[in-house]
Amino acid sequence: MAIVLELLSRKNIPLKHYKFEQDYVCVGRDFNNDLRLDDPYVCPSHMLVAIDPESGKLMVNDCQSTNGIKVNNKFVRQATLNSQDVIKIGRTRLRIIDTKVPLAEAMPLSELEEDLSWLNQSFLAICLSFVLLGFLLLSKYLGSVQEFNLIKALPSELGQLAVFCLWPLSFAILAKVVKKESHIISQFSLMWIVVLIVNGLILLQKVAIFNIHPGAWFAWFELLVFASVVVIFIWLSLFIALHQANKRRNVIAISMTLIILAPIYALGFLSSEQFSPRPSYNPTLLPPTYNITSAAPTDKFINQAGSLFTQVDKLKIK
């Protein structure tokens, strides 16, 4: 029977495992130990993990150490170990692994991973960042009512790109923490594509408002579309960064979307009162670029304006 010890991080994340084809393992800071730990709080000869010849179970013995031994957060001098027990000596955590326990079945490999391999191209990520920067500058130019100055507009848009970079960097760091490949290039490419899609949807929203004047249903439609984009974006970010079951990934993606969108829309609905002594107005002027319909003749516009006053009078009566 082999003795397998797994080195853990402070959050019990596996870092490394050690397998010993012998009946006992000496653990300590001394170089003569079977497992040497570079931990100043561990004694030169700290503990002994051995197989009991009678029961065949693993036993741990404290070798008169200074800081003692904790098994599952309880101090022990001698104890019987079970699979998945966590031993803490000094600031080092070790877990007992039973090699006889069968492992879980392998997760099915999705073809989506191969389909997304094209995202992992540095040239693509750089090109997308420049396209996004150009799109942001163009949007700012179209929405500007004053003389547009590229030099003054560039720093703010670059700052916006820097803020966007926090998302892929956080997922890359998370992947490194759990000892997975960061896929940072794929994360950046995905980020730029999603931001471009969102900005494109905002542009379509302005065109729709400018031309068809949608009703109250349009706000719920916007929420549905935006929530779908956010869910897909978070799902793909998790898919690229970590190895998870689909059910768990779905739950995390939906939960994070609710956490992100719920406060934004809740504050929006709470602040939309029927009457306010200090009403706020949206002074945004949409440029003629957004207009894709023909202009109405003057007579028709006057007739439509008269019908609007009639509708207002009906609302007053109600």
Notes on the protein architecture:
By secondary structure, the chain is of the alpha+beta class. Helices cover 47% and strands 16% of the residues. A six-stranded antiparallel beta sheet has the order 2-1-11-10-7-8, with no helix packed on it. Strand 10 (86-89) and strand 11 form a beta hairpin. The mean pLDDT is 83.
| Helix vs. strand class | alpha+beta
- Number of helical elements: 8
The overall pLDDT average reads: 83
Low-confidence stretches: none
Note the main sheet: 6 strands, antiparallel
Order of helices and strands: EEEEEEEEEEEHHHHHHHH
Kindly report how far apart the N and C termini lie. Answer: 85 Å
Which range does the strand content fall in?
15-25%
The dominant shape is: elongated
Number of strands: 11
Report the radius of gyration as a whole number of Å: 31 Å
Descriptive key words:
318 residues, alpha+beta, 6-stranded antiparallel β-sheet, 5-stranded mixed β-sheet, 8 helices
Helix and strand arrangement:
Layout: E1 3-8, E2 14-20, E3 24-28, E4 35-36, E5 47-51, E6 58-62, E7 69-71, E8 74-76, E9 78-81, E10 86-89, E11 92-97, H1 112-115, H2 122-142, H3 150-164, H4 166-177, H5 184-211, H6 217-241, H7 246-271, H8 298-317
Parallel strand pairs: 3-4
Antiparallel strand pairs: 1-2, 1-11, 3-5, 5-6, 6-9, 7-8, 7-10, 10-11
Please provide a brief summary of the model.
With about 325 residues, this protein is α+β, with helices and mostly antiparallel strands.
